[in-house]
Design brief:
Two copies of one chain form a homodimer. In chain A, strand 9 and strand 10 form a beta hairpin. Chain A folds into two domains: 183 residues; 163 residues, Isopropylmalate Dehydrogenase (3-Layer(aba) Sandwich), CATH 3.40.718.10. The longest helix of chain A is centred in the C-terminal third of the chain and has 27 residues. About 5% of the residues of chain A have low confidence. Chain A is α/β, with parallel strands linked by helices and 350 residues long. Chain A contains 14 helices and eleven strands. In chain A, strands 2-1-11-3-10-9-4-5-8-6-7 form an eleven-stranded mixed sheet, sandwiched between helices.
Chain lengths: 350, 350
């Protein structure tokens, strides 16, 4: 556990998750001497947890290549390793994103038919929630990769939201066929021809994300990362303007006081911790990255998402749906589950 | 005047601008029979305006290529033509963006040394306002074009904000040197070596836009368009959540009533009309695109921006600064103003 959050917050988060999922069991990867006294404070969690000593941590500023070279004794590597060995159904970490992705790709491998992984997140919308990916696993993506992302996104939306036929849109700069970059236009063509169990909506624009026009928004990692961070920056800016407006006059201050319950509810709704977790899609196992600076509540949300994924047939689904596109005129191959068997979830935490 | 806004809103906007800029004169391009009775309602505006009859309009759904073929009798073409002939210092239109850009490039030509135009806009931030470009004139951009955008953005920021050395940042998905797409990294390298009169800040991320970390944010047209629309969608989403929160309880409703002045001030601050106007940079003349659905207030803001640009040496500056990068080891060429001479502004309105 080498994250900014520190092991105390991580364990508090696991304790929250334990209350929500009474049958969960944890493998806690980290420094045994540090974890033992912390775990003693959480009686119920201790009863369902095993500390797995790891002498080392991956630092937050370490490059993925460095981490791959010298991180084999780290808590993060051990957590991914326990998923690879089938000891845990999922891994959740608040550590270094690049290293976690490198370890996942190296140790778990990729799902059959998927060439590049993606990071997906749940985005609050006017209609509820949507999935957006890729949020930065790749710096740019070609048409085939965008199709991969669409397949992974629909499988994830199905696992998390319980949807039968998620609606999928490709992020573009206009809804017309003629606009946009070549990769996006080509991906649209492939998806339109495919017989995926989705409603392919075509192109969506930036403002359609927050409006909740589709369940799954597909984009390359560069654009997705910029969109996510721009949205975060805008939410902060509006909150800043709201605070300014409400403290500028006496009536504003009294009104804010009276409406403080409502404003608290708004803060809770906008709270990034309640949909905390960047999900790694495409790797052959369930790995969820929690924000580095999160608290117990945020870490518990990340565990929730991981459990939903583990209980679904998401990994097998991605492989089968991707194959159904590649071999269009032949019947799709039988679903052959990859990765840990769903059932009683076991979470590796690093 | 073939925009969604309709000539009545446009003329009302011109009348507002006339009150702010008593020396302004207008060439109003459009259907004379429609404009004459409308103009009669604005006495002061009528005194400084000339109606230039144009029998045709460019429709909002027309493709730029179509408009170029059959739009030579349109009010939009005539407005750009009057800038090209030096009859007007600036053109402002709420019409079809693609056609307006095509006409501007075709009739005004490009500034020396600039290969592609960009659309820039003013973005509200925690520190005040920043310039963001390109917002969709191009679907993607290489390193050289990003450098063009940086030069155009700093010249625009100087003209609008009166800054001596604007800070400039390149939008990327991490602040480290190693991250991001090749074109962005290469552009950073060129800008770092350049002797432009700017503070080159390096990379910025999506959330830095709203935070106002730099005066000018440079990105390709695809990413910029997605960022702009995602920000608009997020602002709408937060407003939606705020309304929901404030109407959910009695105290919330009373509080909102008391704070209604403050909330109105917030709405005014977030109002896209007050920074209305996509500025066309790179073409050899001042052309500002107002939002199609805007009102008098919004159209007047677009005219304000155009006037600030016309009064500055922006066009000459772009050419000189771009040349200073191309010929690094030789002295920059003497500034040779292109386009209409600044001074008493004359606005062509279509």
């Amino acid at each position: 556990m080498g994250s900014d959050a520190g092991p105390a917050a991580i364990l508090a988060g696991a304790a929250v998750a334990r209350r929500r999922h009474p049958k969960i069991r944890f493998l806690l990867h980290g420094d045994e001497a540090a974890l033992t006294p912390l775990l003693a404070k959480h009686k119920t969690l201790a009863d369902c947890s095993e500390i797995c000593h790891a002498p080392d941590v991956v630092r937050m500023d370490e490059k993925p290549s460095q981490a791959l070279r010298r991180g084999r004794n780290s808590s993060m590597w051990h957590a991914i390793d326990s998923v690879a060995k089938g000891e845990a159904a999922v891994a959740v970490s608040a550590g270094n994103t690049g290293a976690l992705m490198a370890f996942s790709m190296f140790r778990l491998g990729m799902i059959d038919g998927i060439s590049r992984p993606a990071i997906a997140a749940i985005w609050p919308t006017m209609r509820g929630q949507s999935v957006v990916l890729d949020l930065g696993a790749n710096a740019g993506s070609d048409a085939e990769q965008l199709v991969d992302f669409a397949v992974m996104g629909e499988a994830f939306a199905r696992a998390i939201f319980g949807l039968d036929r998620p609606t999928v849109g490709l992020l573009n700069i206009g809804e017309e066929e003629v606009k946009g970059v070549e990769s996006v236009k080509k991906a649209a063509h492939i998806l339109r021809q495919s017989k995926l169990p989705i409603e392919f909506h075509g192109f969506v624009e930036g403002d359609d994300i927050g409006a909740g026009v589709v369940d799954v928004v597909v984009t390359d990692g560069f654009t997705g990362n910029v969109a996510l961070k721009t949205a975060e920056g805008t939410a902060k800016l509006v909150a800043h303007f709201l605070r300014q407006a409400l403290t500028n006059s006496l009536f504003g201050r009294i009104g804010a006081l009276l409406a403080s319950g409502a404003l608290r509810a708004l803060r809770a709704k906008m709270d990034p911790r309640s949909s905390n977790g960047g999900v790694f899609l495409g790797v052959n196992g369930v790995v969820v990255k929690s924000h580095g600076g999160t608290d117990a509540h945020g870490f518990a949300s990340a565990i929730d998402i991981a459990i939903d994924m583990a209980r679904s047939d998401m990994l097998a689904r991605i492989s089968a749906d991707r194959a159904a596109i590649a071999i269009k005129d032949e019947p799709a191959p039988a679903q052959n589950p990859t990765g840990p068997t769903p059932g009683q979830p076991e979470a590796a935490v690093s």
